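Minutes, project check-in
Item: structure for the 170-residue chain
Input as provided by the requester:
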Amino acid sequence: MLLAGVAGVITINGTVIVELITFVIMLAILARYVYPEIVKLAEARQRAIAEQLKEAEQARAEAEQRLKEAEAKLDDARKTAQSVIDAATKSGEQLRQDLKQKAEEESKRTVEAARKEIEAERERAIQSVRNEVASLVVAATEKVIGETLDDEKHRRLIEKAIQEVSAARG
């Protein structure tokens, strides 16, 4: 055993050398064939992860954009709803004012019609009283004078009596 030597705890002999050569050959085979495949797979996996991160970032950005658009649409919808509410309130107020005005106009027309009816009734009552007074005057005159009056005298007496009655009232 020429190659055998002592190096502390390990005894160097042929087995160690064979194991060392086998280890170096295995290391060379692994470095030549296996490690490049592992590195390719690791790099591919790293690229895939980077691509997924990029896609996730794009998806997040798109989601934020959609969120902003949705918030803008929601704000627009709120503004539209508020304007519809305001318009409905204004329309309701206008309708209330119109109905109130129409009711007031109708009330005025009713009061005016009633006033005209009262005035017409008053005029009819006055005319009836005048006719009655005229009849009474003619009857009283016929009794006092003792004769029947003709149409002309009759009218003058009636007019005179009516004027006297009106003067006495006024």
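Outcome recorded: Residues 111 and 117 are 10 Å apart (CA to CA).
No further action items on this chain.
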